[in-house]
Amino acid sequence: MTKASIPSAAPIDDGDGELNPNAITLNAPILRGDTKITAVTIRKPDAGECRGIALVDLLQMDVVALQTLLPRITSPSLSQHEANRLDIADLLQFGGKVASFLLPKGA
């Protein structure tokens, strides 16, 4: 049995020759059954997806806050268990991206 990969989350050309800046290549791929997830795309959360999470905690890259938010804003969607088991270097990549989403455009 061969393991499948989910390549759709890898940095992709958006049609204008630019790579997707919201795609994160994982240092430690996630195994989901026979599927190996090597990259995940993250999108800017809206207010509803941040419910129950203090925004300051996201800016400070609080582990619990990030693990709560990531299943809501990732593609392929990470489960809560997968978010809790992320490699620390991968969690740091996600945290940096989430923090950048919360800053004003001019910052």
Describe the protein's topology.
Layout: E1 4-5, E2 23-32, E3 35-42, H1 55-59, H2 63-73, E4 74-75, H3 80-84, H4 88-102
Number of helices: 4
Estimated structural class: alpha+beta
Helix share bin = 25-40%
Q: Could you tell me how far the N terminus lies from the C terminus, measured between alpha carbons in angstroms?
A: 49 Å
**Biggest sheet, open or closed, and with what strands and sense?**
4 strands, mixed
Number of β-strand runs: 4
**What's the gyration radius in Å?**
14 Å
Task: Give the rounded overall mean pLDDT.
Answer: 87
Strand percent estimate: 15-25%
User: What's the helix-strand series?
Assistant: EEEHHEHH
Low-confidence stretches: 1-12
Number of domains: 1
Structure description:
34% of the residues lie in helices and 21% in strands. It has helices spanning 55-59, 63-73, 80-84, 88-102, and strands at 4-5, 23-32, 35-42, 74-75. Strands 1, 2, 3 and 4 form a 4-stranded mixed beta sheet that branches. It has one domain. A hairpin with a 2-residue loop joins strand 2 and strand 3. It is built from 4 helices and 4 strands, in the order E-E-E-H-H-E-H-H. The relative contact order is 0.18. With 107 residues, the protein is an alpha+beta fold.
